Amino acid sequence: MNKPSILVVDDEPDNFDVIETFLTNTKDSGEAKQDYNLHYAASGKDAIASLEVFQPDLILLDVMMPDMDGIEVCKKIKAMPQWSAVPIIVVTALTTKKDLAQALFAGADDFISKPVNRLELIARVRSMIRIHQQYQQLATFNTQLEAMVQERTAQLQSMILEDSLTKLPSRVFLLQELKRCLQAGESSIALVYLDCDQFKLVNGSFGHAVGDQLLIAIAQRLQQYLRPNDLLARMGGDEFCFLLHQIEEERTVELFLEKILQGFAQPFAVANCEIFITVCIGIALGNNSDHQPEELLQDADTAMYQAKLRGKDSHQIFDRKMHLAMFNRLILENDLQRALEQQEFILYYQPIIDLQTEKLTGFEALIRWQHPERGMVSPAEFIPSMETTGLIVPVGMLVFKKACEQIRAWEQQGWTELTMSVNLSVRQFSCATLLADIDRILTETGANPANIKLEITESAIMDNAETAISITKELRSRQIQISIDDFGTGYSSLGYLHRFPVDNLKIDRSFVSQIQSENRNYHVVDTIITLSNQLGLAVIAEGIETKEQLKWLQNIGCQYGQGYLFNKPLPASEVEKIYLRS
Ligand code: C2E
Ligand code: MG
Ligand code: MG
C-alpha cells in the first residue's frame, strides 16, 4: 500500500522541518523510517495549486499566513468537491475558543496547538489518517455497490423487457410501447394476437427442448413479416403478438394476416423433424382513442379465443359484442355447475317408431334443464358450453344413469322389448373412466344392456379413430348397441363405416326435412339406406314432421324414425299415459 501523503502548509519552512522530524519514526537500531510522504507548500495559494500533484490524505494547515490565512484556505479546500473529504488539521498558536470555533466553522476536522508537541502530532495524524482511509474504503465500496446495483437493475430491466428464449420483446415491453402509442394519440394501430394450436402435443410428443426450439423457429419466421416500426413480442407460452402501425383500414390487416397464414403452411424444421403447426389469430384495431393498453390487448385475446372456438387455423377481428358473449358464457358456466348440484337436469323421452309397422320400438333420452327462472331450457343452449368446460362428463353419466333407471322401471312393468338411446358426447368418449362408469351404472340399476343404444357423433369417432374402435368394441361386447348420430353432418363418408363396429345410423334431420322436394338429398338418403342395408346397419331417420316424409321413407325402406309427426320428446309421466298403458 502507498504511504499516506501529508501536505504541510506553513509560511515558515522551519515549521515543516519540525513536523518532518517529529513524524520520522526512529527505530531502536537508530535507523530512520518515514511512514508518510510529506509535502510542503509555503502559502495557501501554493497549497491549493499543488493538491492535484500531491493527492494529500491529510493537510496540516497553519493559520497565520500572509496573503491568504489558513481559515480562508480551509474554506476554499472544503468547498472543492474532489478535496472536501480530505481531513484538515489546523496547526495554530491561536487557541482561544473563538479562534477554534472559527477554524471548525471553516471546515477543519481537528486542531493542534503550536508549539507542536511530538506525541500529540503523531497521535492526531495517525487517527485522522485512519479515519480518512476508512472513509475512502467505504466510499470505494459504495461506488462498487452502486455500480453492481446499476448493472443488476439493467439486467433485470432487460429480462423484463426481453423474452429470454426467443430474444423478442416481452409482454411488458409491448404494453409500454402500446401505452406510448395510445398516449401519443395514434389511432391507426392494430394488435395481432397469435396462439399456436395444440402446442401441448408438440411438447408431449417431442419433449420440451424441441418445443422450445420450435418456438424460436416460429419467432424467427414471424419476424420476417415485421414491417419497419412494427413490433413483435412473445407474450408467454405459445403466444405472440404484433403491434402494427399505420393500419388505416381492415383490409391492410387482412393482407398482413394472409402473409402470416401462408407462412404457417410451410413446416418448421426442428430437431431433424418437420413439424407443421397452425395458429389462431385475434385482431384488435386501436381506432378508439379511449382505449387503455391492457383493454386493447384483452380485446385481441378475446378475439383470439373466439377464433379458437371455431377450430384451429382460424382468425377473428374483435367486435364489441364479444364482451357480452364472453360475459354470458361465464354466467352460463356458473349456472350449469349450480344446476348439477341442485339437480335441475331431467330427461325427456322421444318415441322411436318402426316405420313399417308404425309401432313404438323405444325412446331417445334427451336432457332438459329445468331452470328456476327461465323454465325449460333446450340442450342446444347449454351442451356446447358443457363440452368446453368438461361438465358434460358428470352430467352425461347422470343422464345415462337416469335413462337406465327408467328403462329398467318400464321393463319391470312388462315392456321388455323397448330400447333406450342415450347420447354420448365427444368428451365422454375420451374420458378414461367411461367403461368403468358404464359398468358400475349397469350393475347399480340392473338395466339390460341389450336394450341400450349409445349415440355418438361422427366427430367423436374421427377425432381418435383407434381409441374409438376399441371402446365401441368393448361396449358391444357388453351387448350395448352403437348408433352414429346426426349422420351426414360431419365427415359424411360411408367409406369408413365398415371399419367401425356400429349397429345403427341416424340420418340427420336436415336430410329428412328436404326430401319432399326432388333435390339431391332424395338420392343421398336413398344411397345411405341402400348402403347401410348392405353393411347390416339399421337406419333411423330423425326429424320426421310430415306424412309425406313418412311415406317417402317407408317407400325407400327406412326402418326406424323419430319426429314431431309421432311425438315430441316427452316427460316420463306423459310417455306412460300415451304409450305404456297396460
Ligand atoms: P339429437 O341427439 O340429434 O337429438 C334429436 C334432436 O332433434 C332433439 O333435440 C329432438 O327434440 C329434436 N327433434 C326430434 N324430432 C324432431 C322434429 O320432428 N323436428 C325438429 N325440428 N326437431 C326434432 P333436443 O332435445 O333439443 O336435443 C338437441 C341435441 O342436444 C341432441 O341432438 C343431442 O345432440 C344433444 N343432447 C340432448 N340430450 C343430450 C344428452 O343427454 N347428452 C348429450 N351429450 N347430448 C345431448
Ligand atoms: Mg341423439
Ligand atoms: Mg341426432
What does this structure look like?
The chain is an alpha/beta fold and 582 residues long. The chain has 3 domains: 5-138, Rossmann fold; 171-318, Reverse transcriptase/Diguanylate cyclase domain (Alpha-Beta Plaits), CATH 3.30.70; 338-578, EAL domain (TIM Barrel, Alpha-Beta Barrel). It has an 8-stranded mixed barrel with strand order 15-16-18-19-20-21-22-23. The chain has a 5-stranded parallel β-sheet with strand order 4-1-5-6-7, sandwiched between helices. A 5-stranded mixed β-sheet has the order 9-10-8-13-14, with helices on both faces. Helix 2 packs parallel to helix 3 (70-78), helix 7 (199-206) packs across helix 8 (208-223) and helix 13 runs parallel beside helix 15. The longest helix has 44 residues, at 118-161. The mean pLDDT is 91. It binds ligand C2E and magnesium ion (2 copies). Residues 364, 423, 455, 485 line the site of one magnesium ion.
